[in-house]
Amino acid sequence: MPPKVNVVSLVSIGRHPQSGRSRRAEQDGRAVELGLKLSKKSLTVVHAGDAQEPVLRQYAGMGLDSLTVLPQPADGDALPILVDFLKSSKAQVVLTGVRAESGESSGMLPYLLAEQLGWPLVPRVAEILTIKQGAAEVLLALPRGQRRSVIVSLPFIATVDNAAAEARQTAFGPGLRADFKVLDVNSVKDEAMATWQISAAKPRPKRLKVVKAKTAADRMKAATAKPVGGGGKVMKNETAAEKAQAIFDLLLEEKVVR
């Protein structure tokens, strides 16, 4: 592999799925790990956002000497400044996660970057095997643990899948000693985001009965078989209002409606 391959890894602020606390994003950490494997000396890790965010030290603690920050407000649009940065940095390989764990989390940023730069995009990469003669052999992650090898010309953008190598443990001391290069860039307000109304996600209604049959015969048997036991109640002499209330109470109990 050529010693000088300009690799840029884009990182964001993650969010723990249970506690909601800020953390190193899972896929972004894998992208940095893949970048370190390719070329530690020519790897540039970039974050568009708040330079004072403590989570950035978790990325730096992976063995980085420095981390580049493009300052952006919370309502800023990261796309224009990232396009300008990638053009000026002469990047050959750009690594990102499939989607962010916070914010819009649409997964569209790599595609928009590829469109603006005119570069190919390789989705869900598990590993980059070789880079030589202006092309890279990339291993894609497919469903059920399958892999596919493809050849892509440089430069390109790759989204890193969870099948890629796990990010190494971060070290507190090196993370504090790493140099943060805060660049002077012009922030662009995200006009579309300013019109959105963001609310907390609600749990989806669940099905009353989930059939775990593997064959068509098993599914037919489960659908037609007479239920045994259970806490059912037969209502014959009750009024229509009482029957409706009983059905509504069952739906509330099963959390089908709220």
Automatic annotation (TrEMBL):
What SMART domains does the annotation carry? Answer: ETF
The GO terms this record gives for MF are:
electron transfer activity
SUPFAM superfamilies named in the record: Adenine nucleotide alpha hydrolases-like
Top-level taxonomic group = Bacteria
| Coiled coil, from the record | none
A Pfam short name: ETF
Residue limits of the Electron transfer flavoprotein alpha/beta-subunit N-terminal domain? 13-191
Q: Which UniProt keywords apply?
A: Electron transport, Transport
User: So what family is this one in?
Assistant: Belongs to the ETF beta-subunit/FixA family.
* Protein name in UniProt: Electron transfer flavoprotein beta subunit
Native organism is Marinomonas alcarazii
